[in-house]
Here is the input.
Amino acid sequence: MMIRNTAVLSALVLLFGMGAGAPQPSSAQPAASAPAAGEWRTFVTEAYPGKRDSISFVDETHGWYGTGAGDLFATKDGGTTWQKVASRPGTFVRAVGFLDRKNGFIGNIGTDYYPGVIDETPLYRTRDGGVTWEAVDTGEATIKGICAIDILRTQRIYQGKLVPRTVIHAAGRVGGPTGILRSVDGGETWSVIDMTAHAGMILDVKFFDENTGLVFAATSADAAEAEGLVLRTEDGGKTWREVYRSGRTLELIWKASFPAGGPTGYATVQSYDPKRATQLVIRSDDRGATWREIEMAQDASARQFGIGFVNADMGFVGTAAGGFATRDGGKTWERAPIARAANKFQTVTTGSGVRVYAIGTQVQAIDLPAPPKG
Here is the structure.
């Protein structure tokens, strides 16, 4: 059994403020009024029949998201209004990652997975805020498609000085085959890491420094045989070791969150077993070297998608049965109103605290006071 369009797009939703089944707003509707502090706000966006997969903000006001129809939208006011800045029918925008207000990367799922996707280019670069895209040149070697983009800002010693360095990884894909595009110079040059010997699918990627990183994956490209898998490298992707395997079929590790680049992180265990009620997330306190399972809910319908933590204790999960939230590092969970199939969360620092964005069947945000570091 392969996970196909109907399985992914049928997933549903919520987290601290808007009910499931709310009508999809059209771009002609007026913007929603600002909610009270600590409540989720649902932004007015162009109607889309399924979930949107990725959102990327570079500051409190400037952000982008894409759709499976090949559309890229941008905001300059924190999400209150959105403008379509580019459209490439036949491309499925699965991942978006921006460096600043002009420079960013757009990941395409690639062909032979979703009907109607004819674009074979896995990764694009934009230098004008998403208006125009150029294919990333990887030479003769490439990968099939992208499900996640990770951008790491770090430093290196150059001629006795610390200089900025931007390391980018773009990895995929759901349904396989697997591979990673890697750049250590901000996207100017790229190398390709073939991951077919290590995983059947890759759904997310996270690097802590130039050498140490994780991929969140499944053991097989066939969901009927797949077990959830996390792999870790300490040499920039030359070698990998298995640090978590679920031991159950019909499972993938879908998305991960390590708040503020700290040692504590979480990932969603996405189950396609209709008989399994126990929904788990996994937690690491040592940058992904080891993991333990945490029960989130007893609900067979709560297939998990995205996950986002503000600090080590406070975080959110989007599922097919609505949103969930924890304030104690996963010891306890409560239902929360995030819109259907929230696939990606991002936390942005604001003048008064932090804002958490969520994207799925809706685009939402919640403003919170800056939490204590944990």
The mean pLDDT is 90.
